[in-house]
Each structure stands twice: as structure tokens, then as C-alpha cells.
Design brief:
The structure holds 2 protein chains of 2 kinds.
Chain A lengths: L4 E3 L2 E4 L5 E6 L6 E7 L6 E7 L2 E5 L6 E5 L5 E5 L8 E8 L1 H5 L5 E2 L3 E5 L1
Parallel strand pairs in A: 2-11
Antiparallel strand pairs in A: 1-3, 3-8, 4-5, 4-9, 5-6, 7-8, 9-10, 9-11
Chain B lengths: L8 E5 L4 E6 L9 E6 L6 E6 L4 E2 L4 E4 L5 E6 L8 E10 L4 E4 L4 E6 L1
Classes of the chains: A mainly beta, B mainly beta.
């Protein structure tokens, strides 16, 4: 079965540069979530989208922005990168009515961002 | 803030059942308990979830106490490939959608 696809898998950027991560949800899923996991830390919720609209916002820095497109894929844009932004960024997807009635969300393999 | 507490680490012998406990004493009546695991910084892998009844699937069993304040994930026959960090997570209602609130997880080491 198709899973959540993230690209790129690895990315190295310098401080103050910009990076864009992409997430392609499972087909027919209408909700996308972004998480950040720093080295040795637990995943932290950043932001989510439902039907191309932002639905919830977590600890996403103002330097970051995200959107969901008409084909339901999502992009996380990170500007003025700092060393502390080095982390594993996960995307997850769900079908909202299924999730709301108690089913699950599925995660991609993540994108490793290293800021040097 | 995380709504779950788990032991930071556990060992289990290969072939034995691994029982991972989780406390969620502040869980609300409509909040589900989810279990995911993460193998060496790969994407979190869904294991199982439940509301108040015990659940079983091909990977594991989930035992939820009657007062719902704690639960136990059971891997019936642990293998070396089950070595991972196991997260017990409560799904809470956000402003417009549900969210998974992650805690620190249990690092499970399966020993030969």
C-alpha cells in the first residue's frame, strides 16, 4: 500500500539559508501534519492542514511557513535557518472523517535537515 | 504537555512477551490511547490504539484498565527487530482537529 512520501530525505543547509520540505500524503487522505524531532527528543507538533486550510498550529517558529496544495501535498518552508533547526521533520497524513471517528494517522520516513 | 508517563527503558529476552506500561491518569473520556514505535530515527510506525476496550492486532495487544488511567502494550513474542522506542500517546482535541501529544517513550531492548 502507498505510504506517506517525504522529500528530500536528507538536506544540508547553511545558517540563514532557506529550505523546503515536501510531503505527499497517502492517496485520498485530506489531512497533513508536520512534526519536528530534534536529536534525542520527542516529536513536537508544528502545524496541520485539512482540505488545504490550516487547521491547527503547534510550536512552529515564525520563520517557518507551510501550506497544503490542491493535490493535498504539503510543503514546509523554513527561512533564516539556525543551527537549532537541525532535526528530523516528519509528515503524517490521515482521512479526517476516519481519524475523527477513532482511526489512526500514518507517518512518513522523515526528512533529515542539518544546518551547518 | 504530555499526558502519559512511561519507564525510560526496558529489557526483554527474545521470544518472551514484552509488556510495556503506560500511565495516563488525566485522560478524558473521549481521548484515545495510541502506541507507535520508532526504530532508530525512522518514521514512527503505528502499532495499535484503543479507547476503553482491550484491542489486539497482528502486531500487539493493548490492555486498558477499567478506569482508563493506565494501559499495557504487549508484544507476545519479542524479536530482535522489536528493539525500538515505544511511544504511548493520548489523542487530544485541538482547536479544529485531533492531535497526538507525545511523551518521552520507552526504549525497549530485546536481548538474544
Amino acid at each position: 500500500a502507498a505510504g506517506v512520501i517525504q522529500s528530500p530525505r536528507h538536506l544540508i543547509k547553511e545558517k540563514r539559508e532557506t529550505a523546503t520540505l515536501k510531503c505527499y500524503p497517502i492517496p485520498r487522505h485530506d489531512t497533513v501534519y508536520w512534526y519536528q524531532q530534534g536529536p534525542g527528543q520527542d516529536p513536537q507538533f508544528l502545524i496541520s492542514f485539512y482540505e488545504k486550510m490550516q487547521s491547527d498550529k503547534g510550536s512552529i517558529p515564525d520563520r517557518f511557513s507551510a501550506q497544503q496544495f490542491s493535490d493535498y501535498h504539503s510543503e514546509l518552508n523554513m527561512s533564516s535557518l539556525e543551527l537549532g533547526d537541525s532535526a528530523l521533520y516528519f509528515c503524517a497524513s490521515s482521512l479526517a472523517r476516519s481519524w475523527n471517528s477513532g482511526n489512526t494517522i500514518y507517518f512518513g520516513e522523515g526528512s533529515w535537515l542539518t544546518v551547518v | 504537555d504530555a499526558k502519559t508517563t512511561q519507564p525510560p527503558s526496558m529489557d526483554c529476552a527474545e521470544g518472551r512477551a514484552a509488556n510495556l506500561p503506560c500511565n495516563h491518569s488525566t485522560i478524558s473520556g473521549n481521548e484515545y490511547v495510541y502506541w507507535y514505535r520508532q526504530i532508530h530515527s525512522q518514521g514512527p510506525q503505528y502499532i495499535i490504539h484503543g479507547l476503553k476496550n482491550n484491542e489486539t492486532n497482528e502486531m500487539a495487544s493493548l490492555i486498558i484498565t477499567e478506569d482508563r488511567k493506565s494501559s499495557t502494550l504487549i508484544l507476545p513474542h519479542a524479536t530482535l527487530r522489536d528493539t525500538a522506542v515505544y511511544y504511548c500517546i493520548v489523542r487530544v482535541a485541538g482547536r479544529s482537529n485531533y492531535q497526538l501529544i507525545w511523551g518521552a517513550g520507552t526504549k525497549l531492548i530485546i536481548k538474544p
